[in-house]
Write a structure and sequence with these properties.
94 residues; mainly beta; 8 strands; four-stranded antiparallel beta sheet; single chain
Length: 94
């Protein structure tokens, strides 16, 4: 079951998780949290200029995470297995 903690969903970005790190666009000025879900296992990292690696946090396929972020930050992701997939990143604000 998914919860959005009474936050308003905003822009959704789709990142292809392949064998090299892929970063999102910068989050908007009203973004306080992001909601992420992937259709394949992947690793992810947050930051100003993030690069995901095999040692970054793991997001199992189909799992939903809510993460606290700052405006202007980005998320980067890379696949965990030999199968590429997509990571859906939705900006959430009050």
């Amino acid at each position: 079951m998914s919860y959005n903690y009474a936050l308003r969903p905003g822009t959704t970005q789709k990142l292809n998780t392949n064998n090299s790190s892929t970063a999102s666009a910068a989050f908007g000025s009203q973004t306080e949290y992001i909601r992420i879900v992937g259709d394949a296992n992947c690793h992810f990292v947050l930051g100003g200029s993030p690069t995901a690696s095999a040692t970054s946090a793991l997001l199992p396929s189909g799992e939903i995470e809510m993460l606290k972020v700052s405006p202007g930050e980005k998320i980067a992701a890379i696949r965990n297995t030999s199968t590429s997939g997509d990571l859906f990143v939705t900006e959430m604000g009050a």
